[in-house]
Amino acid sequence: MKVFVASAWPYVNAVPHLGNLIGSVLSADVFARYARMKYGNENVVLVSGSDEHGTPIEVEAIKRKVRPKELTDQAHEYDKRLFMDVWEISYDNYTRTESDVHKDFVKKFLLSIQSYIITQKEVLPYCENDKIFLPDRFVKGKCPYCGFEDARGDQCDNCGRLLTPDLLIEPKCSICGSKPVMKETMHWFFNLGEFNDKLSKWISESKTMPENVRAVAMSWINEGLKPRAITRDNSWGIPAPFHGAENKTVYVWFEALLGYISATIEYFKSDAWKEFWFGKDIKSYYFIGKDNIPFHAVILPAMLMAAGEYHLPDVVGSTEYLLYEGQKFSKSRKIGIWIDEAESIMDIEYWRYVLIRIRPEEKDSNFTWREVIRIVNTELNDDIGNLINRVITMINRYFNGEIPQLHHELLDDKDMALISLMKEAPVKMGDLFEKGKLKAGTDEILQLARENNAYLNLKAPWDLIKTDVSKVANVLSISAGVTYTLSFMLSPLMPKHSRKIMDLINVNVDKWEPLQDPSILKGKKVSKAEPIFSKLPADIEKKIPDILKQVREEVEKKRPVLLK
């Protein structure tokens, strides 16, 4: 089994905020870490990269009178360091759309599907002042659907509808603010409608695609797919490879989708990349925000169908929106937390755990500091950390620091029930993860820890030790087995803290295999008990505004100019 994992390519014109992170990057990493334990490191690849072409960067470069690549070089390196060094994202390859491998592959791929590409004339806004056509974000205006005054030529930030420049009401040039004229231009289109029936059959018959993604894709398909422009009249991007398209570039969405393949090619540097894209023994997972569903569940599979034998997406794990204290993230209004601010506020692995626990899988979810405090102080410290501390302390106290022997003949129903749960929890968590349900999967961690805490309270080994040492041995042997199990279940979320737990019971767990019998831990020497987690101050909620103000002043100084 080969497992391909990808996160949507972050656009480099802004530092990602927590909502961006959980929607794609962190979700993909947590799943990939699980998959490596389940299927083996050599059978899993995790890729993504900086999406750096297109109009937003070009507009910014024109305003600053610099080359676009000067801006994106800095932004790419900054984001890459944040993801891999700060947030512990385990990319096998985090590349960029300026990669030569990517640019060459995109051109060859588009030429290979040229039979599905047609030309059409379009009438588009043209700025007579700047002497350029105004695709996508080169033009702004009022949204025809919701009336939002500052909609872009490709999408409305208010209602989320995809747009084209000609739909905008009262359009104006993003560079000089003048009113454009409408002018005819030739463009190359991917004839998406040719795949209407194939896409409908594929998505409706899929047994792995999440229902929310299936619903959005079918909505598009049922409306009747139309040709979509694959070229743009801007200069910052991959030159269109078609005859007669010398002054055109490839639309960023088409090339970014192809980046999943080019990033795999770039990583392997050999034909080994094909094992993840061709054949039947493959599973592919894409982690995205809900606004990207049409691109990943309609346009990407259509392009793959056009090219021949590529493996189509199995699971497109889409999140809803994450709000910050009930409001949308907004840099201009200073609402939210950005990923280069987070490490100065709280341990990054706490952030990783918290964000997965509030991941908006079924509906929009709300980040509140009250909930963060509850998750860290109750779930991590009380439910998990305190359990492990109790178990280690009692093994040291009653059995000279060695995990005791399990006496199978003395097991009762309560013992057997916890052993069963210990074996079942990782299986259930894995099943949910493979459906793209990461938050739901982590519920299994909490249930196991809480059941073990209740079991200890019921068995009361501190009293039982006075009358029956063998039964206490069973209690702590089983609880050590649960600690073992929790250590590797936490590993995808909190790799460093997981390692600490493993060290406490002197094990090294690198496979996703449920412990079938706690007795195999017999004789393992445990370390001295020490806190795995620490609680957040109860008054941190009141202090956050001041903490954030101070952090932002420091972080702002370090950001590349494009990201300020």
Automatic annotation (TrEMBL):
<dbReference type="InterPro" id="IPR014758">
    <property type="entry name" value="Met-tRNA_synth"/>
</dbReference>
<dbReference type="GO" id="GO:0004825">
    <property type="term" value="F:methionine-tRNA ligase activity"/>
</dbReference>
<dbReference type="InterPro" id="IPR015413">
    <property type="entry name" value="Methionyl/Leucyl_tRNA_Synth"/>
</dbReference>
<dbReference type="InterPro" id="IPR014729">
    <property type="entry name" value="Rossmann-like_a/b/a_fold"/>
</dbReference>
<keyword id="KW-0030">Aminoacyl-tRNA synthetase</keyword>
<keyword id="KW-0436">Ligase</keyword>
<feature type="domain" description="Methionyl-tRNA synthetase anticodon-binding">
    <location>
        <begin position="414"/>
        <end position="537"/>
    </location>
</feature>
<feature type="short sequence motif" description="'HIGH' region">
    <location>
        <begin position="10"/>
        <end position="20"/>
    </location>
</feature>
<comment type="function">
    <text>Is required not only for elongation of protein synthesis but also for the initiation of all mRNA translation through initiator tRNA(fMet) aminoacylation.</text>
</comment>
<comment type="similarity">
    <text>Belongs to the class-I aminoacyl-tRNA synthetase family. MetG type 1 subfamily.</text>
</comment>
<feature type="binding site">
    <location>
        <position position="143"/>
    </location>
    <ligand>
        <name>Zn(2+)</name>
    </ligand>
</feature>
<dbReference type="GO" id="GO:0006431">
    <property type="term" value="P:methionyl-tRNA aminoacylation"/>
</dbReference>
<protein>
    <recommendedName>
        <fullName>Methionine--tRNA ligase</fullName>
        <ecNumber>6.1.1.10</ecNumber>
    </recommendedName>
</protein>
<keyword id="KW-0963">Cytoplasm</keyword>
<dbReference type="InterPro" id="IPR009080">
    <property type="entry name" value="tRNAsynth_Ia_anticodon-bd"/>
</dbReference>
<dbReference type="Pfam" id="PF19303">
    <property type="entry name" value="Anticodon_3"/>
</dbReference>
<dbReference type="InterPro" id="IPR033911">
    <property type="entry name" value="MetRS_core"/>
</dbReference>
<keyword id="KW-0547">Nucleotide-binding</keyword>
<keyword id="KW-0479">Metal-binding</keyword>
<dbReference type="GO" id="GO:0046872">
    <property type="term" value="F:metal ion binding"/>
</dbReference>
<feature type="binding site">
    <location>
        <position position="159"/>
    </location>
    <ligand>
        <name>Zn(2+)</name>
    </ligand>
</feature>
<feature type="domain" description="Methionyl/Leucyl tRNA synthetase">
    <location>
        <begin position="4"/>
        <end position="391"/>
    </location>
</feature>
<feature type="binding site">
    <location>
        <position position="331"/>
    </location>
    <ligand>
        <name>ATP</name>
    </ligand>
</feature>
<dbReference type="InterPro" id="IPR029038">
    <property type="entry name" value="MetRS_Zn"/>
</dbReference>
<feature type="short sequence motif" description="'KMSKS' region">
    <location>
        <begin position="328"/>
        <end position="332"/>
    </location>
</feature>
<feature type="binding site">
    <location>
        <position position="156"/>
    </location>
    <ligand>
        <name>Zn(2+)</name>
    </ligand>
</feature>
<keyword id="KW-0862">Zinc</keyword>
<keyword id="KW-0067">ATP-binding</keyword>
<dbReference type="Pfam" id="PF09334">
    <property type="entry name" value="tRNA-synt_1g"/>
</dbReference>
<dbReference type="InterPro" id="IPR041872">
    <property type="entry name" value="Anticodon_Met"/>
</dbReference>
<dbReference type="InterPro" id="IPR023458">
    <property type="entry name" value="Met-tRNA_ligase_1"/>
</dbReference>
<keyword id="KW-0648">Protein biosynthesis</keyword>
<dbReference type="InterPro" id="IPR001412">
    <property type="entry name" value="aa-tRNA-synth_I_CS"/>
</dbReference>
<feature type="binding site">
    <location>
        <position position="146"/>
    </location>
    <ligand>
        <name>Zn(2+)</name>
    </ligand>
</feature>
<dbReference type="GO" id="GO:0017101">
    <property type="term" value="C:aminoacyl-tRNA synthetase multienzyme complex"/>
</dbReference>
<dbReference type="GO" id="GO:0005829">
    <property type="term" value="C:cytosol"/>
</dbReference>
<dbReference type="GO" id="GO:0005524">
    <property type="term" value="F:ATP binding"/>
</dbReference>
